[in-house]
Specification:
The structure is a homotetramer of 341-residue chains. The first copy, chain A, is an alpha/beta fold. Helices cover 35% and strands 24% of the residues of chain A. Chain A has two domains: 147 residues, NAD(P)-binding Rossmann-like Domain (Rossmann fold), CATH 3.40.50.720; 166 residues, Dihydrodipicolinate Reductase, domain 2, CATH 3.30.360.10. The longest helix of chain A has 20 residues. Chains in contact: A-B, A-C, A-D, B-C, B-D, C-D. Chains B and D meet through β13 and β14 of B and β13 and β14 of D. β14 of chain B pairs antiparallel with β14 of chain D. Chains A, B, C, D: It catalyses: myo-inositol + NAD(+) = scyllo-inosose + NADH + H(+).
């Protein structure tokens, strides 16, 4: 290979700046061609020291900047729809951070726009699909040695939630990872959701329903349960056990370096998703760069982004009503029927 | 100590014969004084080679046999109520296999009879309370270092179910262990139950809803979920993770001797509850013998037996209706308010 | 069964009193008939509350007390030889705590005395042979699935050493457990020993060579290495990995209840051998009681006790000389050639 | 960053071709400028599809090719010395696969040549220093929480050895990884070595002394033992336990996805070092590219390469003589006294 892929990065916050660094020094085959952020000082800081990069306040200006051949969207969720449509209009491949579009109506408009174009341009940032252990889990489920999956038991814990985190965000921001992972691992759509609310932990901010216990049913008759606990205090833990007809497979068990000191023998628990999934982020962006340079699109699709939004919305309604809530998906455009899911 | 406690064993089937052996050679301080079984040939076989034992067809005859000071009930569940009331009438301490009484009405009659007597005579055979790991788990929850328990995630898997096992028996025979364990670990009563039914495993007998996923709510605001899977094919697994405000504690993870052979490193999974809980059974009977010889009663009470029946009945109704089903308990007699639960 | 086996316990110190309690209440089929200790107050205290027991200052008086049918020797090591010979003279079966006899000359005299009698009377208290995990390890090695054992990697760590513990005692008191375990697991004799001395830990008492690293060669061409570290500070750990031609098997890995708290996930490490091997001690004494009541002798033999002494002596010489030191065993009497080792 | 670092790769065999791919697509900041191999067809194949690359039969021609700013040596060991000296003569930074130079005399000439130049140019390919777990282990040892390291217990197992693998190669090819890892982890030099030879496994080729057990002593009084077993048949396992004054730290325990199937629960054991250390290789080359572009040199030095050769030579002598063999190192040039080791 030779020519580096010129990428416009939209959004220069925590995540955006991290992706700028990754494109510049963490993955091969790409270069940062433009950075956009309404806060141009922040955009300039992220772009500092990179040759040939331009800085913009407006997303569309960045898309039109010289040398831009692809877009990485890391701006806040509400800005995603407009950015995606603008990229599609220009025929630019996109890697879009999750949630693709926060509301499922908007997400569906993105799906329809891409489908009209007849060519896959968008990859959604569900990086768990690139985690080494999740990939092994997927492989084991797909090779059939354990028989049909019956249940997924998922655990998703964070040390603490950021300010302003709401009870609904446990579903549509946190559990959205499990929504995509379950759909991907099982190759099934989620059809109903129930949310149970144990008495909140004393470690949760006043008024936040934390933890929650979320149950999904699938169109294949499987059951997916998720403990979401965003103020657990003790570490960042993401686990998934697939219980199948002939065996079980577990990813995310605590492991790694074992330390024995007075009275205990154990492993360190990562405190942060950036630590736990550092390699997955790298692999995700690298896979996107490689595919894009070859004119292909792989990974999570806009349909996957839409489905995640639709399920999460049903989840929030289930949380509010306390009732089992069906999920209604729009018909799936033909563009997405032959994807790798 | 000196004099051995004379025990009448009611029932000489698989479990009864095992308890006869345990009393004779497995625990100290006791001797088998009488064995009763309608099939007296079976009773004789179990009693073979034991000095001073008498064999009976009728339970009451065994209770009245010379030297009988206590009773171990291992007959089929429907015979338990009559045997318990007969033991109470004679003032004999009882260790009664689970379920104490299969229906909660009968269980409540036993509770009331014991309460009328004003003295604890019955211990119910929830042997999981005597398992070394469950006891450590209980100790960790009680010492408060992890804060208040929020959720229990339980897994209960058997290799295969015996002939005649029904969908309701997954609840009232298998999950009854988790019902008691949850009440004991949390020190809370269960107030409602919901049963989810994923598509049955191909390994389950035709018509059996296996696995099931059972959700209990407690009067302390905790949530208890149980995967019950009695034809999992791969082993006998009983796990429990207590998720608390400041940490989590997990019992029953696969461990023990690690074997590494071509391509895999792992532990042996026990195939049978008699293997996994062998020590718990021994400890249970020994604890009962020791307490009885000192004129005391410890361990799971008749109230615990009643509560397990009542919750299991609600569970079966939840299985049949597909609805969340409240649990209604009778008022708790004063005799049981100061127990160790 | 009926009649209880009357046992004389010699020595009423920490270990002896524990065995008195075990015979009285921990195992079935036995009763304490006599207790002997030069400190008769201590003997009386251990025997308190036991019916029909007599207390003695002299070991031989206890052997001759009414109802004594067997002997458990838990007196200090230097008293063992005389007690064993006295028991042999009376035809009494013996369970003798390790070391059988501290010096290999005395141990050989015991072997020769028992061999002259033509009947196995002595079982040596190597309780690791009764540990559940070691038994699984032995079974796996014996069933041949892993092929021939090539190496044993052993770790033996104590929190701290008692006052007066010498560098030689790391070999002849601590490593003696591995000496017996290796001989038993491999079914081979140890033929040479080398002791390496890393710079002592700052946690070891002044002048104590702790840790040490001990290498044994066997007559089957296997290698056994032992880390012995008696002031490790962090817990009581006994591990053994058998590396074989087709796989490896590891016993004693830290396991049990898993606790996750801020930053760490792990297991509790036992701090004491009485905790770690509690079940093994119970099983050991029970096995001896059962065999004795049936007129049989099983378990570690006097020859095993002698071999352990002889190898430990060579080990101490290796420690002092810094050289590889061959082990010379006397010819094995025919009495011991058909044992279960 | 902008300009890509032009790298000449010497050697286009298995390892060299893998590095060409890594530089071209696996790491950022570098490009392959030249490939050299006496078998030019092989070199052409490795270079296929890369823009601006030239192909050469002679290493020196590649060093002089246009755009070459740095060298990666992946040719056979005997060719390394000449290639290193040629790179030094041109002032080119080098990443040299291990062994740096097979014999310690030649390795010392390389050290002296680099020291004369007064500037660090060489990094040796000890990729274990870049493995995530080893790095955590190093960090834990360095931060002092476990106190002074007393012993390292190492295990190094391969499924099978390639044709032509000799008994000496277990030391100078395989154990050389542990030689460097021990020196790096402890920050100490190895001063003596003893090699023990258990009876070879039936799985080893006729005449190969496999496994071996190697003991190193250090100038800090620590002990390093290594089980090297290159025909273990069951997997690729690299483990290291550091036993310290206040605790122990273990890297390389089998972990990852846990699979439970009939009778066993366990993890997959990788069968190959390229699988186990894939990330380490990527991190290694990336670190070298990044440092080189900034005009710095980090990582294992030529001195580390020399020390590994010298220790391995002593190890082979110890293997042949059966005796403890001291290691004699030349005086360390000042250039290497302030390195990160």
């Amino acid at each position: 290979m030779s020519e580096l892929l010129g990428v416009a990065v939209l959004g220069a916050g925590h995540m955006g700046a991290d992706h700028v660094r990754r494109l510049d020094r963490g993955v091969s085959g790409a270069r940062v061609a433009a950075v956009a952020d309404p806060d141009t000082a922040r955009a300039k800081e992220a772009a500092a020291g990179i040759d040939g990069v331009t800085v913009h306040a407006e997303a569309e200006a960045a898309l039109d900047a010289p040398g831009v051949e692809a877009v990485l969207i890391a701006s806040p969720g509400p800005a995603h729809e407009e950015a995606l449509l603008a990229a599609f209009a220009r025929g630019l491949p996109v890697l879009c951070e999750k949630p693709m579009v926060p509301d499922s109506e908007g997400a569906l408009r993105v799906v329809e726009a891409e489908a009209r174009g007849g060519r896959r341009l968008a990859q959604v940032g569900f990086m768990r699909r690139y985690d080494a252990e999740y990939r092994r889990l997927k492989r084991v489920l797909d090779d059939g040695r354990l028989g049909r999956p019956l249940m997924l038991h998922c655990v998703h814990r964070n040390v603490s939630s950021p300010p302003g985190f709401t009870s609904a965000m446990l579903i549509d921001s946190s559990v959205s990872h499990e929504i995509d992972a379950a759909r991907w691992l099982l190759g099934q759509e989620l059809t109903a959701v129930t949310v149970l609310r144990p008495r909140p932990s004393g470690g949760a901010p006043q008024g936040l329903l934390d933890p929650q216990f979320v149950l999904f049913e699938t169109d294949g008759g499987a059951l997916v349960d998720v403990e979401i606990f965003v103020n657990c205090g003790f570490g960042y833990q993401v686990r998934c056990e697939a219980v199948c007809e002939h065996g079980s497979a577990r990813a995310g068990e605590d492991h790694g370096l074992l330390l024995t000191t007075a009275g205990t023998a154990g492993a360190e628990v990562p405190q942060d998703y950036l630590v736990r999934f550092a390699d997955a982020y790298d692999r995700e962006v690298q896979a996107w760069v490689d595919a894009t340079r070859q004119g292909r699109a792989t990974g999570p699709t806009a349909w996957d982004g839409y489905a995640a939004s639709a399920v999460a919305e049903a989840g929030v309604r289930a949380l509010e009503s306390g009732l089992r809530t069906p999920v209604d998906l729009a018909p799936r455009p033909a563009l997405y029927t032959d994807t790798g899911r």
